[in-house]
Amino acid sequence: MTNYRWRIVGLLFVATTINYLDRQVISLLKPTLETVFNWTETDYSHIVMAFQAAYALSYVAFGRLIDKIGSKVGYLIAVFLWSIAAVLHAVATSTFGFGVYRALLGLGEGGNFPAAIKTVAEWFPRQERALVTGIFNSGTNIGAVVAPILVPWVLGVYGWQVAFLLTGLIGFVWLFFWWWNYDSPQQHKHVSPQELAYITSDAESNEGNSAIRWIDLIRYRQTWAFILGKLLTDPVWWFFLFWLPSYFASSFNLDLKKPSLPLIFVYTAATLGSVGGGYLSGYFLRLGWTINRSRKTAMLLYAMCIVPIALTRYATSIWEVVGLLSLAVAAHQAWSANLFTLVSDMFPKNAVSSVVGLGGMAGSLGGLLFPILVGSLLDTYKTAGDISIGYNYLFVLCGSAYLLAWLCIHLFAPAMKPIKLPDALPEVVS
Questions:
Q1: Quick check: pTM over 0.85?
Q2: What is the dihedral of CA 310, 273, 16, 43, to 10 degrees?
Q3: pLDDT, averaged across the chain
Q4: Is residue 137 within 8 Å of residue 337, measured between CB atoms?
Q5: Which residues cross the membrane (predicted)?
Q6: What mean pLDDT do residues 286-306 have?
Q7: Whole-number Å distance between alpha carbons of 251 and 392
Q8: Alpha carbon separation from 377 to 209, 251, 372 (Å, rounded)
Q9: Domain spans of the chain?
Q10: Which of 127, 119, 188, 143 is nearest to 19 (CA)?
Q11: What whole-number percentage of the chain has pLDDT above 70?
C-alpha cells in the first residue's frame, strides 16, 4: 500500500509553519518598531486588532469558498495573498501602514486552517485525523521557534525591512510544490487502490460535493460547540503569540535582538504538545473508547494543564516562568488539535471547511476584542510602574478559559452525534 497521504501532511505542515512565521515577525520586531514609530502598547494592540478583524472575516469567507472550489485552488489563493502582504510590511512607513498590511496579511492567513482541516478530512480516516491535525498544527510552533532564531539575526545584520521581506518570500516557494503535488485521493495517480480504500474506509454515505449554507449549519448544536470552543480559547493563543516576547523583554530584560532561548523552549514545548495531544485521543480510540469519550477526556486533561499558568505571579526566575508557559502552550496546542478534529468527527466532508470557518471567525473575533483589554491593562500598570501586575491578571484569565470552553462543548454536544445533512434541513436545532 502506498502512503502518499503523509506527503500531503508534509505540505500542510510547511504551509502552517510559514503562516505562523509570517505573523510572528512583528512581535519580535516590536521593541525596534516601538522606537522607530513611537508606538504605545495601545498602538500595538490596534495593529494586532487590524490583523484579527481581517483574519476573522477571512476565516469564514475562505471556509465557504474552499467548500465550493476545493482545497487545491483555495489554499493556493490564501498563501499567495498572505505572502504578498508579508512582503509589503517591508515598505511600511507609518503605524497606519502597518495596520493596513497586517489587515491584508489576516485576509490571506485566514484560509490556512479551513483548507488544511478539509484536506485532512479528505485524505485520512477518523482514527488518524487528530494525530495528523496535531502534526500539521505543530507547524504553528515551528514557525514560532524559527522566528526567534532567524528574525533577530536578520534584524542585526540587515535591518527590520529585510526581516519582513525574507520571511514573506518563503510562501511563494511553497506554492510551486503544492500545485504540482496535490490532488484529491480519488484522482491522484500516486495513490494505490489499497491506500484509497483505507482513506475512505469510514466515509459517510451522504457526503456530497456541494457546499452547505451557513444559515443551515448554525441551526445545529454541534456547530455551536465548536464556535464556543474557539471563541473562548483562541484569544489566549493570540496573546501567547503576540505578547510573550514583549512580556519576557519587559519583565526579565530579555534582549530580542539576539536569539531568544526562553522563547525557543516555550514554542518547542508547544510543538510536542500538538503532536502528543493528537496522538492521545487516537490511542483512546484504539482502546475501543467512543469518539465522544476519547476526545473529551483528552481535552479535559489539556484544559487542566493550562490552569497552573495563573501561578506565574509567584515565580522568582525566568526559567520557572518558562516552565509554566511551556506547559500552557503545549496544552493549548494539544487542545487545538482535538478541537479542530471535532468538526470532521461530527460533520460530513462537504461541510467541514464552512464549520471551521465559522468557528475560526468566532475565535478571531475573540482575538480582536481581547487585545483591547490587554493593551489597556498593560498601559495602565506600565504607567503605574509595574507592568507585571497586568500580565498576572491576564494569566489568570488565560488559565480559566479552557475549562469553561470544555464545559460549553459538553453542553452543546453531549454525545458528539454525527450530523446527517438531509436534502431539506430541519427548521430547528437538532
A1: no
A2: 10
A3: 85
A4: yes
A5: 47-66, 73-92, 158-180, 223-244, 264-285, 297-315, 355-378, 390-413
A6: 93
A7: 11
A8: 47, 15, 8
A9: 5-196+211-412
A10: 143
A11: 94
The rounded distance, in Å, linking the Cα atoms of 8 and 118 is 12
Residues belonging to the chain = 430
Cell output for 77: 489563493
Q: What is the 3-state secondary structure (H, E, C) of 186-244?
A: CCCCCCCHHHHHHHCCCCCCCCCCCCCCHHHHCCCHHHHHHHHHHHHHHHHHHHHHHHH
pLDDT computed for residue 173 by the predictor: 93
Which are the contacts of 6, defined by CB distance < 8 A and separation ≥ 6? none
Amino acid at the residue 261: L
C-beta of residue 367 within 8 angstroms of C-beta of residue 235? yes
Please list, in sequence order, all residues whose beta carbon lies within 8 angstroms of the beta carbon of residue 126, skipping any fewer than 6 positions away. 202, 285, 291, 344, 345
Of 206, 226, 208, nearest to 218 by C-alpha is: 226
> Domain 5-196+211-412 adopts which CATH fold?
Growth Hormone; Chain: A; (1.20.1250)
CA 233 to chain centroid: 11
Tell the residue number behind the cell numbers 485552488, with chain if given: 73
